[in-house]
Design brief:
This protein has three helices and eleven strands. By secondary structure, it is α+β, with helices and mostly antiparallel strands.
Length: 239
């Protein structure tokens, strides 16, 4: 008696994977949209990860040096790509957790300063994330940190980002230490590039500390004036 051939388990596995792949390829794919206008300014510390390949300061303009594209990113953020033969990825996202409605599905970027940033995709839901990477200068990093300042952002009715102006400070460490990468990115925005040496302002914690010191000094002066007593002087050295 002749029995029908039995497919080996390996063949069935290959067939299943092929089916899944064909389904994925047949599904509609959202493509990034070319920017109408865009530019990127980078300043890197001399020992930074981009300096050996690109130098410590450079500016790229859309349609002149290469092409910028913009699309929806992780956690309803923004993903910007730049292609001049060397592929760059610049992605930014607000914290996924929204305390206002107690959800953890991501939230759009807002015009504000984001600090305590972690690697996008490995960031805490309560902290913002970004990823700054280049194929030729070493694509990706296991740990990233720093801050970014969104100056201009707009989304369409489908929640896809259409316009972005952001300045950032980036480190390839879990903590913001070591060589820094400063950047100023503009996509479909009229805000000019910031080509200063420190694109990102001081974190709010630093301003709070400085304000506290100023307030303490003011109160000390007032208390001294009210009591009529002068502050004690340090003894003079004896010669």
């Amino acid at each position: 008696m002749t029995h029908p051939p039995v497919f080996p388990r390996f063949c069935l596995t290959v067939w299943a994977l092929a089916t899944v792949l064909a389904t994925a390829l047949a599904a509609p794919v959202a493509h990034a949209a070319l920017a109408a206008n865009a530019s990127l300014f980078i300043r890197s510390d001399a020992t930074g990860w981009v300096s050996p390949e690109f130098g410590s300061r450079f500016t790229w303009v859309h349609g002149v040096d290469g092409l910028f594209s913009i699309e929806a990113g992780t956690d309803r953020g923004a993903r910007i790509t730049y292609d001049d033969g060397n592929f760059w990825n610049l992605s930014f996202a607000a914290p996924a957790y929204n305390a206002a409605n107690n959800t953890n599905v991501g939230q759009p970027l807002q015009v504000r300063f984001y600090d305590r940033v972690q690697t996008l995709g490995a960031n805490s839901p309560t902290r913002p994330g970004f990823q700054i990477s280049s194929f030729d200068a070493g694509y990706g990093a296991l740990r990233e940190s720093g801050s970014f300042n969104v100056l201009d952002v707009a989304y369409d009715s489908n929640g896809v980002v259409q316009r972005l102006a952001v300045d950032f400070e980036h480190y390839r460490n879990a903590l913001p230490t070591g060589p820094a990468l400063f950047g100023s990115l503009r996509v479909n925005s009229d805000i000019p590039l910031n080509q200063g040496l420190t694109p990102v302002p001081l974190p709010a914690t630093v301003w709070l500390m400085l304000g506290g010191l100023a307030l303490a000094a003011t109160r000390l002066r007032r208390s001294t004036g009210a009591s009529g007593q002068a502050l004690p002087r340090c003894p003079q050295p004896v010669h």
